[in-house]
Amino acid sequence: RTLLSPPFLYINVKDYCYDDPQCDPYSWGDSFPSCHPLLDLHHSPINLDLHMSRNSSLGPLRLEGFDSVQSGLWTLRNDGHSVLLQVGAGMAVSGGGLPDVYHTIQLHFHWGGPASNGSEHTVDGRRYPMEMHVVSMKSIHPNVSVALDDPTGLSVLGFFIDVVYADNLHFGQISQKLSSVAYKGQSTKIKPFPLMSLLPRNNMSQYYRYHGSLTTPPCSQAVLWTLFEVPIYISWSQMAQFTSQIFSTEEDAEQVTPLHNNYRHIHPTFSRVTWASREARLVRGWAQRPLASAGTLMMLHVLVLTGHLSAGL
Ligand SMILES: *[C@@H]1O[C@H](CO)[C@@H](O)[C@H](O)[C@H]1NC(C)=O
Ligand SMILES: *[C@@H]1O[C@H](CO)[C@@H](O)[C@H](O)[C@H]1NC(C)=O
Ligand SMILES: *[C@@H]1O[C@H](CO)[C@@H](O)[C@H](O)[C@H]1NC(C)=O
Ligand SMILES: *[C@@H]1O[C@H](CO)[C@@H](O)[C@H](O)[C@H]1NC(C)=O
Ligand SMILES: [Zn+2]
């Protein structure tokens, strides 16, 4: 089974799951000792409380290649635990207090179920509907297995995903392809698009930083987390593509099981510090949820127009 994207590495890990006491996150430690949350270890995810300290040296990140269209094709894949988009070479993350340049290798999602939210990190105890992780590896490392032995070997950019009334046209480039990867092991090719089009581009310097782990086996404590304050907004139906169309089982399985609630439980921070970036606002986003994000205004106009029409009829 592959944990992170080829060609960097295939890590063979035994099976793990989210929905069965035999193999769910609380029992991962039985098969993967490094997933045991012992005292003073740096596990993820955590709850972010908004009383954290500010570190004014945490300025904007440098996101190389995120604004351009990469060559080749990307691969969208259902690995039974998530949906992963494996991107080619050409994108890198640095700055913002990161100690090195990190090459981006893949992004993937965590979600809930028909009636539950599924972000991994929580903010003041509240869970967002979904979370997206953009995974990058420190450029000095030849492969992910070496990077996992370095406490700052990986950088993960985490984006909360919240739900609004209108579709996010850019996000459609992923959500419309999900039906091709409904079952575990299935993959499909995607034409590259500027990754930045998915991200909250006006608010990229508002983030939180802490040192943690992978949230899937082998749970290596090798991740510098950057969690963005402002979420990505998608529609309810785009989110439902994840909760209703993705299965953790293979197509020919006797019993198909939807993949739901693929998040690890919250871990204590112990002695760790979580920093807020220079421009983070440290206010809860819940109250200021917009009706629609910029990319969706067109759709909103259509809705408003339809409303006017039916009101007139
Ligand atoms: C602020 O962040 C930088 C970069 O991560 C780090 O080197 C520095 O120690 C932090 N400042 C404090 C006061 O810890
Ligand atoms: C789940 O997400 C919705 C939409 O953002 C939010 O209104 C709700 O409070 C969240 N529920 C929990 C339990 O965090
Ligand atoms: C990763 O790189 C190290 C150092 O070059 C090498 O010893 C190891 O075999 C590589 N692992 C894989 C799985 O390619
Ligand atoms: C996002 O950034 C814009 C431009 O700096 C700012 O006006 C807006 O308040 C920010 N949004 C949030 C929710 O912080
Ligand atoms: Zn993840």
UniProtKB/TrEMBL annotation:
Q: Which InterPro entries match?
A: CA_dom (IPR001148), CA_dom_sf (IPR036398), Carbonic_anhydrase_a-class (IPR023561), Carbonic_anhydrase_a-class_CS (IPR018338)
Recorded protein name is Carbonic anhydrase
Q: Which GO terms describe its cellular component?
A: plasma membrane
User: Could you cite one Gene Ontology molecular function of this protein?
Assistant: carbonate dehydratase activity
Provide the E.C. number(s) assigned to this enzyme.
4.2.1.1
Keyword tags: Glycoprotein, Lyase, Metal-binding, Zinc
Q: Is RNA-binding among the key words of this record?
A: no
Alpha-carbonic anhydrase domain residues:
14-278
Q: Which co-factor is required?
A: Zn(2+)
Q: Which domain of life is it from?
A: Eukaryota
Q: Which family does it belong to?
A: Belongs to the alpha-carbonic anhydrase family.
**The reaction(s) this protein catalyses:** hydrogencarbonate + H(+) = CO2 + H2O
The UniProt function text for this chain reads: Reversible hydration of carbon dioxide.
Q: Does the keyword Zinc apply?
A: yes
